[in-house]
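Subject: Re: docking follow-up (ketopantoate)

Dear J.,

Thanks for your patience while I sorted out the input files. As discussed at Tuesday's group meeting, I've set up the holo structure prediction with ketopantoate included as the bound ligand rather than trying to dock it afterwards. The sequence and the ligand SMILES I used are pasted below, so you can double-check that they match what you have on your end before we go further.
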Amino acid sequence: MKEIKKVTLVGLGAIGTAYGSLLHDSLNESFQVVASEERIKRYETKGILINNEPYHFNYITPEAKTGPADLVIFAVKNDELPQAIKDVRHHIGSDTIILSLLNGISSEEEIYAAYRNEHILYSMSVEIDAVRTNNEVHFTTRGRIEYGELDNTLSNDVLAVKKLFEKVGIDYEISSNITHTMWWKFMINVGINQTSAVLKAPYGIFQTMPIAYEWVESAMREVVALSEKIGTGLTEQDIKKFWPIINKLSPKGKTSMLQDVEAGRKTEVEYFAGKVCELGEKYKVPTPINEQLYRMITIIEEMTKINK
Ligand SMILES: NC(=O)C1=CN([C@@H]2O[C@H](COP(=O)(O)OP(=O)(O)OC[C@H]3O[C@@H](n4cnc5c(N)ncnc54)[C@H](OP(=O)(O)O)[C@@H]3O)[C@@H](O)[C@H]2O)C=CC1
Ligand SMILES: CC(C)(CO)C(=O)C(=O)O
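The structure tokens for the complex came back this morning:
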């Protein structure tokens, strides 16, 4: 079986630091973080605090010609993906396994279009409540990474990643139906990320206020309607499965989209409501709630630009 010895990460934010810190602790020099000179300078000057503990990773610039890694992990935002794909070019060889932890349902295809690499596994992180403020990240739980092959086989790549995760202590689940899993996560993000960003509400609001949570479910229901039409397997039952998950998250925790809004960053609305509306038009499924969420979040983004 393949053994993963060298790992590269691109994207040292909320998600990247949560899993990157475990990889760093266990693999030391064999774990590298790709970042531009400007980023490295910033990370080294200010340091990166993960749950108040300072971390110093092994940084490498995109230009440095290193041999391919056994595993490359993407943990940037969707809009940052095209640049990140270019920046890790020296780390991707024909046998390199790739994991993309980005939310949404398009990043794996984007990476495949660039590299035609046959070792891309589909993956996502769930039940993590990481919050990043500049160079500080806090979380009470790292949740787990769910992943798998598109054909749901227990391939050598899947088993090699399992062995690595067990070695470094990353909780994981090998999905028995990764398409369903990816759509389920997409449904969650469409529901909670977007409503929390508009309401500026941490998880505690949704845990205690039924009217807020009903709005989440109504946005999710449009994803279920699309899934039924496209055949990706979501049902009303999948909506109900999110309730115990949100209830476990820290009441003060915030979705990545709310964190983006608060930090004045561009959000991933194009990849959530934008995608829902695009698919709604294509498959003739009404998506009025996502149309409104798309408008509201786009306006919030525009207002941020004016106020900057
Ligand atoms: N936060 C969460 O709880 C969760 C997030 N996700 C998903 O994970 C993905 C990442 O989110 P999150 O971690 O919150 O995002 P963050 O914005 O916290 O982190 C992204 C990081 O990537 C860095 N970056 C961007 N482009 C490059 C590049 N070319 N080279 C090196 N570094 C780069 C950014 O650096 P810089 O700051 O210097 O620009 C930033 O530190 C998103 O798709 C999100 O939806 C999934 C589950 C939960
Ligand atoms: C599921 C959730 C809301 C937290 O892990 C997430 O994926 C995000 O914040 O982007």
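A couple of observations from a first look. Residues 103, 126, 128, 188-189, 192-193, 255-256 surround ketopantoate (ligand 2) (CB under 6 Å). The chain has a mean pLDDT of 96.

Let me know if you'd like me to rerun anything.

Best regards,
T.
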